[in-house]
Amino acid sequence: MAENRSEILAGAAVLAAAIGFLVYAGQTAGITRDSGSYPLTASFRSAEGISVGTDVRLAGVKVGTVTALALNPQTFFADATISVKQGIELPTDSAILISSEGLLGGNYVELMPGGALENLAPGEEIEDTQGSVSLISLLMKFVGSGAESAIQGEEG
Predict the structure, then answer these.
(1) Cα 55–74–42 angle (5° rounding)?
(2) What are the residue boundaries of the Mce/MlaD domain, all occurrences included (predicted)?
(3) What's the rounded Cα separation, in Å, for the pair 50 and 60?
(4) Within this chain, do residues 12 and 80 fall inside the same structural domain, yes or no?
(5) Quick one: 55 and 125 in the same domain?
(6) Phi and psi angles of residue 139, each rounded to the nearest 5 degrees, phi first
(7) In principle, which of 20, 26, 37, 49 could form an S-S bond with 31, CB 3.0–4.6 Å?
(8) Across 7-16, 86-95, 100-109, which has the greatest mean pLDDT?
């Protein structure tokens, strides 16, 4: 009987540890449902570098996440839905853009508050958007303009 009791206690301890790890993993991954947030939408020309779960930041502080990302077949833009923490009220003329953490860092969504007196209601769309800028296309433009100016320098 004592063996049986110790096996049950050991099994319960393992089960409790597993549940604790699952709760911790859910909180760090942002999987847990946060009822203290509201949705906003935005439509980007290019949403390259972001996906569901990408951070939404305001002044460098995480205030939400990207909750949905889909192609709009009518406009061929990427429609994004973001979740923003309650208590952060954005003016209606706010902007949203995809920013990079640096040359080797990932991308995130940045909110730039406007100055309007009215605030965005849950579910409304942020009209002023700026999609991601491809680092490779910028480098190609730079290299192309450098070669072009070198050729013009030889001719002149």
Answers:
(1) 25
(2) 37-114
(3) 17
(4) no
(5) yes
(6) -65, -40
(7) 26
(8) 86-95
pLDDT on residue 113: 93
* Region for 147 from its dihedrals, namely left if φ exceeds 0, alpha if ψ lies in -120 to 50, beta otherwise: alpha
Range of the domain at 5: 1-32
Render pLDDT for 37-51 as a digit per residue (tens, 0 to 9): 999 999 999 888 899
Q: What sign has the CA pseudo-torsion 70, 71, 73, 76?
A: positive
Q: Distance (Å, rounded) from C-alpha 120 to C-alpha 78?
A: 20
Provide the b/e sequence for 42-75 (b: ≥16 CB within 10 Å): bbbeebebbeeebbbebeeeebbbbbebeeeeee
- Distance from C-alpha of 130 to C-alpha of 77, rounded to nearest angstrom: 12
Please report, for residues 37, 94, 129, 132, 153, the alpha-carbon distance to residue 66 in angstroms, rounded to integers and kept in the order given: 12, 17, 15, 15, 48
